[in-house]
Write a structure and sequence with these properties.
Elements (H helix, E strand, L loop, with lengths): L10 E10 L7 H14 L5 E4 L4 E4 L7 E7 L2 E7 L4 H18 L7 E15 L2 H9 L21 E5 L6 E8 L4 H6 L4 E12 L8 H36 L1
Helix pairs in contact: 1-2, 2-5, 3-5
Length: 247
């Protein structure tokens, strides 16, 4: 799937979040042991950074392809930007799920949900809200809400769906235009990306930490299917065509 995105998007990223019910420990020894273990598995994760309420391990973000891992509050996050293939990104996420719970004393009852995000950036020059509106909504009933002499000032659609009868398996698709107030007031728009996020989440409980690997595999399979069958043809392709038509 990654190769097929080359002509559609500027950047593609695969992020994971494990959300917990209790705050993560902040013991110096615990954090350093975990980060050292991850660095051993992924030597490129060489930059250890501390923010106000977050600890992160990152590769060189100046490179087109880079990866990261972070701990903040009640969440463990990891991400791969512009990976050569999905397997490369998945290896990082699986490793986090395999080793982090043991270093951080995470119990199955502590797990709130696990989610996987496919992010797509499409660089655009011009009014990004109008681009999204023209690509996705103008030919449908919502298009009639905007009169010919009127201007769209915000268009960031989001939809969430339940993928099983229990609603524990969920998917969300969100489009972000990031139009600033200065751009809107001046009518001068910079070359910024339109971002499309596909989030697949499972909120069901688990009995054993080993089940996280199985759950991740299910999320990955679902995300790939939704991306290929729905997001690429119905969202990314129309937006890309509209960007090209207006350039």
């Amino acid at each position: 799937m990654v190769n097929a995105l080359d002509t559609l998007v500027t950047d593609f990223y695969v992020n994971q979040k494990l959300a917990l019910k209790l705050d993560l420990p902040e013991s110096r020894e615990t954090l350093l042991d975990l980060f050292s273990r991850l660095k051993k598995e992924f030597p490129g994760l060489a930059n250890f950074r501390r923010f106000e309420d977050e600890f992160a391990l990152e590769s060189d973000e100046l490179q087109k392809a880079y990866s990261w891992f972070s701990l903040k509050g009640t969440t463990l996050r990891s991400g791969a930007v512009n990976p050569d293939d999905l397997g490369e990104a998945y290896r990082l996420h699986r490793t986090v799920l395999d080793i982090a719970p043991w270093f951080l004393s995470i119990s199955p009852i502590d797990i709130e949900h696990l989610e996987l995000v496919f992010g797509f950036d499409l660089e655009a020059q011009g009014d990004r809200d109008s681009i999204v509106f023209n690509a996705l909504l103008s030919d449908g009933p919502l298009g009639d809400m905007v009169a010919e002499e009127e201007q769209v000032i915000e268009c960031q659609p989001v939809i969430g769906i339940a993928l099983d009868p229990s609603s524990q398996m969920q998917a969300f698709v969100e489009v972000k235009t990031r139009t600033s107030l200065r751009e809107r007031n001046s009518g001068i728009f910079g070359r910024e990306p339109i971002s499309v996020f596909l989030t697949v989440r499972n909120t069901g409980g688990i009995e054993d930490l080993k089940d996280l690997g199985t759950r991740f595999a299910a999320l990955a399979g679902c995300a790939e299917r939704l991306a290929e069958e729905r997001v690429v043809p119905n969202i990314l392709t129309p937006i890309r065509h509209t960007i090209l038509a207006q350039s």
